[in-house]
Amino acid sequence: MRTKIGVALAFALVLVLPLVVRTLAGGPDRAASTRRGDGSVRTLVIVTPHVEQIRLEFEEAFDRWHREKFDTGVRIDWRVPGGTSEIVKQLEAQAVAAARQGGLDDNGLFAPGMSGADVFFGGGSFEHGKVATERRIAVVRDGQAREVAYRLARPANFSPAQLGEWFGENRIGVQLLYEPGQHWLGTALSGFGIVYNRDTLRQLGLPEPRGFRDLCDPRYVNMLALADGRLSGSVTTTYESILNKEAWDGWRTLRELCGNARYFASASTRPPVDVSQGEAAAGLAIDFYGRGQSQFVLRPGQSADDSRVGYVDPEGAVYIDADPVTILNGCNDFELARLFVEFCLTIEAQALWQFRSHQSLGGAPADGLGPRVYELRRMPVRRVMYENYLDRMVDKSNPFEAASDVPARGWRDAIAPMMAAFGIDTAHDCRAAWRALNQARAAAAAGRVSAGVLAEMEAAFYAMPAHRMKDGSTLEFNEANYKAISADVARWRDPERSRRAQIEYTTFFRARYREVLRSWAAAEK
């Protein structure tokens, strides 16, 4: 019964994510209607992809911290429109609309309340980097059109000494802990790995996976849970870690993962739940989703090693990314937003991510640190937490010691459009061609299919398209040409060029997959 209730709650969590971000109603008084010290409540509007457990623990703790410092409570108005990528798209659209309505001044600042929220909390550094990127838009001033530079984020403006106390060296592996201009600051760290069902693996005759390549085993076909990188920034980071580790050959790995995929979920929360119920044998997951699901299905007294759900960080590819917080340009209450950022980097808030809950301990510890109800199982961003409190953490690992130092290849922008073309929008053909190719491999090993036929099928399955440039010339989609192709579509941000390229890519991949099927059909005769 406990498991069934938990699964229902987990699915309910996924279902409540698609709420629409609402525009702030009213003027500056909407977010900060009271002065400090009068005992009343202020409101902070936060847009986030974070799950409900995180929202509940942080709201309660921030309210308590704020009351202790200022004798004023805080209510958080959470806005949860979907995954991180969807949030960024909505912030972009809202900023353009606000600028056209005259809400952007010549210094690039939006009027209070124009952003629709005060803070963007959670996600990955890539998406928060988009929010921090300088943009330009044409606005009309006194009947004259002019360009104004702006960002979706506002700098938090903490002192260098304060940043040094919180972060020390601004680096983990090859990644930053905060953006140097303070347009985003990390509050936690995210790892990306594999969640798997031990019972289902035994039924399929598969060993427990240790790396991403293990998931390319054809016995995983239709039993691998993936998420759609167009909708989930976190899963795109996982796919990027494969490319970073394997270089250009990583595209082959991504193609094979698509061949085994059961589906491509719109949210990264779904694969761990489905894996726990045996709907899939394994899936890609953010570390805390995978570990959290493993913990949830434990029977009383059962150890994590015996849980039917396991989680592993891939060997040699522990990609650690900051999970940031950003103050939004056009926020209604900059002061309160900045206080929330400050709170997120206190010892009290950092302890929320990894300490045992007071409920599980049977009461609060003497120092009061830790979450009240939910064990969030996220990795804190501050080094001091691992130096002084590792023994109090649920997961006793130090990401600063484990982080990979393999640099980013710079191909992330292509992941969503390419995987859509060769795996998601062509899922049926991809899966069928992958099955046929593996049947041909077995037949070739047994001497029933010639090496030449198998080589032709391999070449067709792994083929990459030619990209048509603006001038009508074509370039093969390969490592040498990537920068030129990326520039041609403005890093996949030119909607018209990107749309045309993706249609051509999709047509190409579908044709190659069907070529594989024809070759196999002929070889079987």
Fold blueprint:
Layout: H1 2-15, E1 41-47, H2 52-70, E2 73-79, H3 84-100, E3 119-121, H4 125-132, E4 135-141, E5 144-150, E6 153-154, H5 160-167, E7 185-190, E8 192-197, H6 198-204, E9 224-227, H7 233-246, H8 250-260, E10 261-265, H9 270-276, E11 282-286, H10 287-296, E12 309-312, E13 321-328, H11 334-344, H12 347-354, H13 358-361, E14 379-380, H14 383-388, H15 399-402, H16 412-424, H17 427-445, H18 451-462, E15 466-468, E16 474-476, H19 482-488, H20 495-524
Parallel strand pairs: 1-2, 1-3, 9-10, 9-11
Antiparallel strand pairs: 3-13, 4-5, 6-13, 7-13, 7-14, 8-11, 8-12, 15-16
Helix pairs in contact: 2-11, 2-12, 3-4, 7-8, 8-16, 8-17, 16-20, 17-18, 17-20, 18-20
Describe this protein's structure:
The protein has helices at 2-15, 52-70, 84-100, 125-132, 160-167, 198-204, 233-246, 250-260, 270-276, 287-296, 334-344, 347-354, 358-361, 383-388, 399-402, 412-424, 427-445, 451-462, 482-488, 495-524; strands spanning 41-47, 73-79, 119-121, 135-141, 144-150, 153-154, 185-190, 192-197, 224-227, 261-265, 282-286, 309-312, 321-328, 379-380, 466-468, 474-476. Residues 1-37 have low confidence and may be disordered. The N and C termini lie far apart (52 Å). The chain is globular and about 80 Å long. Strands 1, 2, 3, 6, 7, 13 and 14 form a 7-stranded mixed sheet that branches. The longest helix is centred in the C-terminal third of the chain and has 30 residues, at 495-524. It has 525 residues and is α/β, with parallel strands linked by helices. It folds into 3 domains: 18-188 and 323-402, Periplasmic binding protein-like II (D-Maltodextrin-Binding Protein, domain 2, 3-Layer(aba) Sandwich), CATH 3.40.190.10; 192-319, D-Maltodextrin-Binding Protein, domain 2; 410-525, no CATH class. α17 packs parallel to α20.
